[in-house]
Amino acid sequence: MPDQVATVDDTATEGAVVLLTDGGDDEELPPPPEGMPKYLWEPLQKQTIGGLESAIEYAEELLEYKQRPVAMSSTSDAGKTVAEKPAKDLAREQQREAKEEFLEMSSDERKALSDDQLARYGHVQIRKVPCGPRCDGCPHGPYRFVVLRDTKGEVTTKYAGKARE
Ligand SMILES: [Zn+2]
Question: Residue 129 and residue 86: Cα distance in Å, rounded?
């Protein structure tokens, strides 16, 4: 009986050593995500574990920063805001997808959306807009605008057609 136990232990140790050797030099790094430029993944592959951990931490901080809500003071640059609707609170992943979808839409597609649907993409403003001097019809509208952060994190305003009065 003691003999048998010793044999089993030896086999287990040998097995572990073989596995470690296999996991060494000839195992390749995981491939970088599709579409990620070499200037980004190449230095990442050279990082130590500590370096990667701080890169992850910094990327998360940047992500948070670039997705921060638009400050209300920066939204009323053209015309007079007569009504507004705050952006819907979506989960980060949903928000990113919605944003990409909205930025790719044509202006006709944006015009076809309801105020409620627009609020999925950003802060909705209803504005009356002046066109210039010597106009009897000023201000025009009201028009709908969606204020959101683009994929770089910068504030952008998209026209979404006439508002229903
Ligand atoms: Zn005018």
Answer: 20
At residue 96, the 3 state secondary structure works out as: helix
Q: How many angstroms separate the alpha carbon of residue 131 from the centre of ligand 1? A: 4
Give the dihedral sign, CA 71/76/81/84.
Answer: negative
Between the CA of 119 and the centroid of ligand 1 the distance, in Å, is 28
pTM, 2 dp? 0.66
| pLDDT tens digit sequence for 90-121 | 888 898 899 999 999 999 999 999 999 999 99
Strands 80-85 and 123-129: antiparallel
Residue 6: its H or E element: helix 2-22
The tens digit of pLDDT for each residue in 30-81 reads 999 999 999 999 999 999 999 999 999 999 999 888 888 776 655 556 678 8
For 5-19, letters b (16+ CB in 10 Å) and e give: eeeeeeeeeeeeeee
Cis amide bond preceding 142, omega within 30: yes
CA of 130 from ligand 1 middle (Å) equals: 5
Residues in the 5 Å CB sphere of ion ligand 1: 131, 135, 137-138
**Token output for 76:** 């009323």
